[in-house]
């Protein structure tokens, strides 16, 4: 006999399914959340399920650890500043190959296995993500003036043209986007995946933006989960260094996505099975909600 619980669970999801029908949800799948095959397959199933119940998921993925692994194997050193990878031409080649190739296509293949139809693209395809070179200001120690750091081929997004995404989703496909952009002169830029996800979410006017990472959400100094965080608290926690590394661009750009018209944004733990479904379809939200 199937359990009554299963029916209860489906019924609990009904108001959410109704609310989300026809809407666009941008999901950033962090490279740090892609820890094992089981989790990646669960993620692919979750995304496929969303598509079949009438939601339009758009996946943007990272791949930091996967890039590091290949760089290590090739004997190339990596440095990070404020969560951004310093990228010379040789590093850029590896980044583009790993993100646009290996990582992107493995997500596409897993969604296919789950019964969905995914199309893997980078920000270069369809003129989607235009970028320019980023400069990073690093505060000097004591009274020293701020230092300007040249991160190489690290880009910031200047414009997102979402036409290709709309075309794909309208025809029943699930776009899977690698965070690579193109400059005015055709040069390739490595862009933080959170930044690309947030800008795409704003360009699409997404109903939800979900950032899947490898921690439960934003944590305070005692490693306790913060259930919701606003602009003031983000500023305060960055300046006292309670928020560091990859969490900085995640929060800064999540805030700009919200001011750009995205309905809601959550940071959740992608290393917990089916966290995406739990966040979307149950009464108690998990992770951290980012508020303006
Ligand atoms: N206050 C904080 N709360 C939670 N995590 C934090 C905090 N400050 C820094 N972090 C770090 O941010 C990390 C998440 O960002 P990170 O860029 O490493 O991963 P990702 O964005 O999920 O993956 P990828 O960069 O590959 O796309 C966490 O693993 C944690 O180490
Ligand atoms: Mg990151």
From TrEMBL:
Q: Which GO terms describe its molecular function?
A: acetylglutamate kinase activity; ATP binding
Per UniProt, substrate binds at 63-64, 85, 190
Where the record annotates domain Aspartate/glutamate/uridylate kinase, the positions are 24-269
- Which InterPro entries is this protein grouped with? AceGlu_kinase-like_sf, AcgluKinase_fam, ArgB, Asp/Glu/Uridylate_kinase, Glu/AcGlu_kinase, NAGK-C
* E.C. code: 2.7.2.8
Keyword NAD appears in the UniProt entry? no
Record flagged with keyword Ion transport: no
Where is the protein localized? Answer: Cytoplasm
- Which pathway, per its entry? Amino-acid biosynthesis; L-arginine biosynthesis; N(2)-acetyl-L-ornithine from L-glutamate: step 2/4
Q: Which GO terms describe its biological process?
A: L-arginine biosynthetic process via ornithine
Q: Which GO terms describe its cellular component?
A: cytoplasm
Sites annotated Transition state stabilizer:
28, 250
Q: Which reaction does it catalyse?
A: N-acetyl-L-glutamate + ATP = N-acetyl-L-glutamyl 5-phosphate + ADP
Which top EC class is given? transferase
Q: Which family does it belong to?
A: Belongs to the acetylglutamate kinase family. ArgB subfamily.
Function as written in the Swiss-Prot or TrEMBL entry: Catalyzes the ATP-dependent phosphorylation of N-acetyl-L-glutamate.
Q: What is this protein called?
A: Acetylglutamate kinase
């Amino acid at each position: 006999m199937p359990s009554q619980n299963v029916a209860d669970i489906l019924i609990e999801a009904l108001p959410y399914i109704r609310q989300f029908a026809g809407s666009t949800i941008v999901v950033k799948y962090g490279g740090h959340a892609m820890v094992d095959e089981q989790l990646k397959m669960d993620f692919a199933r979750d995304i496929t399920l969303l598509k079949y119940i009438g939601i339009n998921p758009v996946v943007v993925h990272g791949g930091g650890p996967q890039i590091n692994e290949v760089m290590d194997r090739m004997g190339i050193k990596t440095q990070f500043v404020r969560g951004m990878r310093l990228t010379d031409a040789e590093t850029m080649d590896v980044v583009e190959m790993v993100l646009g190739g290996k990582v992107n296509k493995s997500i596409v293949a897993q969604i296919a296995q789950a019964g969905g139809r995914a199309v893997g693209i980078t920000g270069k395809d369809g003129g989607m993500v235009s970028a320019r070179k980023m400069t990073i200001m690093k505060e000097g120690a004591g009274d020293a003036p701020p230092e300007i750091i040249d991160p190489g081929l690290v880009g910031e997004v200047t414009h997102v043209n979402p036409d290709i995404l709309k075309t794909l989703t309208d025809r029943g496909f699930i776009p899977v986007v690698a965070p690579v952009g193109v400059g005015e002169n055709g040069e390739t830029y490595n862009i933080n995946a959170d930044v690309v996800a947030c800008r795409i979410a704003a360009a699409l006017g997404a109903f939800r933006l979900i950032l899947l990472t490898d921690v439960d959400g934003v944590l305070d100094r005692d490693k306790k989960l913060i259930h919701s965080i606003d602009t003031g608290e983000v500023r305060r926690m960055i300046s006292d260094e309670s928020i560091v590394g990859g969490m900085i661009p995640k929060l800064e750009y999540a805030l700009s996505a919200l001011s750009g018209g995205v309905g809601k944004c959550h940071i959740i733990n992608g290393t917990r099975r089916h966290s995406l479904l739990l966040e979307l379809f149950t009464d108690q939200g998990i992770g951290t909600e980012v508020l303006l």
